[in-house]
Each structure stands twice: as C-alpha cells, then as structure tokens.
Fold this sequence. Notes:
By secondary structure, the chain is of the alpha/beta class. It has 9 helices and 12 strands. The strands form 3 sheets. A 4-stranded parallel sheet has the order 1-12-10-11, with helices on both faces. A 4-stranded parallel sheet has the order 3-2-4-5, sandwiched between helices. A 4-stranded parallel sheet has the order 7-6-8-9, with helices on both faces. α4 (108-122) runs parallel beside α5 and α7 (202-215) runs parallel beside α8. The protein is flat and about 65 Å long. The N and C termini lie close together (5 Å). Residues 15-18, 84, 107, 109-110, 173-174, 201, 203-204, 271 line the site of iron/sulfur cluster. Iron/sulfur cluster is lined by residues 15-18, 84, 107, 109-110, 173-174, 201, 203-204, 271.
Amino acid sequence: MKAVDIKIxxxxxxxxxxxxxxxxxxxxxxxxxxxxxYTFGPVIHNHHTIDMLKDEHNVHTVNAVAEIAAPAxxxxxxxxxIRTHGTTPAKFKDLVDAGYNVKDATCPFVLKxxxxxREYAAEGYHIVILGHRNHPEVVGIVGQxxxxxxxxxxxxxxxxxxxxxxxxxxxxxxxxxxxxxxAIAPIAARCYEFKLLQxxxxxxxxxxxxxxxxxxxxxxxxxxxxxxxxxxxxxVDMSAALCRTVHIEEPEExxxxxxxxxxxxxxxxxxSTPEFLVDRVxxxxxxxx
Length: 289
Ligand code: SF4
C-alpha cells in the first residue's frame, strides 16, 4: 500500500488546565514520599493518564470521601487533589472537615465561571448554565449556587427556566455559543434584565479551529481522545461534517481503520489526550504503509 500523507493539527495534547492538574498530582505524590495520593474524581478524562498516575506515582482516583483512607493520628493527612473540572463547595468542605490535605487543581478558567455564578447570584440573578447536566464541571458550578440555578442542555430543559426579574447565562467551558444559540432568546424572554457571559474556554475554540483546518484538507480524520471526553466528542462531530472521521481512544484501534483509497490522514486530539498517543498512532499508520 502507498504511504499516506499524515497531517497533524497545529495544537494537540494537554491544554494548560490539564497539564497543571497532572503536574500537581505528580508533585503531591513526590511530597507524599511513597504514601498514596488521591484525586477526587478522575483528574482528567483520559484513562492513559489516570493509569500512569496510579502505576508510576501511586495517585489513585476516588469518587467518594468514604473511599479515602482516614487520616491517622500522628501521621501526615492523606492528600486529595481536586480534579480539573472542579467540585462543589459542599464536597470540598467534606474533604477539609474530614481532615485531608486538600489541593485544588480546578482549572483557573473553571474557577472563574464558578466565581461569576456566585457573584451574579449575590446580585440577585437566577443563573442558567448551558452545558451537559451530568458533566462534573457543570455539577461543580451548580454546587456554587444550588438554589439559584437551572441547567439547560436540551430544548425540553427550557420549560424548567421560570420567569425571574434577572437571569444570567453562563456556559460550560467546552461547549460553544452556536451549540446553544437556540436557547438564548427563549431564556432572555423570561426576564426583565438579562446578562450573558461566554464562559467558553479559548483553548477549546482554538482546538476546534485547528481540527477543522486539517479536516478540510484530508481524506480521513482520526481524533484521539477519551470516549467520555466532551471536548473530544465535539471535535469528532465538527470534523465529521467535513470528511470521514474516526474517533479512537487507543492507538491500536488504528489497525482496524479502513484506509482503502485514503491518500491523506489528519490527526487531532482532545485537550486531555497525552501527546505520546499521537506518536503511537503515527507509528502504527506508517507501519501499515
Ligand atoms: S479545556 Fe480550557 S477550561 Fe477545560 S481544563 Fe483545559 S484550559 Fe481549562
């Protein structure tokens, strides 16, 4: 088979929020000198990274306080790192109250949205979050203002937005304005004073642009990232509108991709995909030539 031309998007691998969270987990593991360190929820949405942290750094993912070893008298408290997407103030307090050494790896961008939700609620706004209801980032933002907040993910959710004097709309960081444009006018019609802050992360937007640039030029696009990664799924959808697109999580999956008639392959990744996976995919593609 003739070698395919491989084009890699201009931005791949971890975003700064993910890189900082992974670095913090490793630093805390070094400080713990062999003791187990925990992350509250997967620190990012990529099992390769989660496995690496566990196998090489003794950093373990837990989903509930009860799963963490209790602090022992006379011994340093176990360290718990809060994931990139953040958590609710209630969960954060539970961890602090239980005596753990809590380190916050919430991305600064997500922290800003959490802060804005609190500020607007204090100013009397009802908060509407546009994003995926069960995504940990959205859960964490709702937790800032649980009594003043509605999540809108689907058109059916619009019915849940009651009339308020003031409404402020915020976005999950990895969605885009066009994703939820249909919701803006109906929400604005339910209040007298309307505020909208596009809390969409610039890294997400740039990653989408870079992916689209490549997808326009190739016969086949391969997007590498977790199947539970919201931003990766979005890249797949955008690319699929332009060319044949395959979403893979493991480099080995490339072996099963039909390359008949394919002269050029583009590669892009979600923001929680380590760059070494791209190298492995490239090696496997070359091996098939
Ligand atoms: S995609 Fe943006 S908001 Fe999400 S972790 Fe990365 S830098 Fe932070």
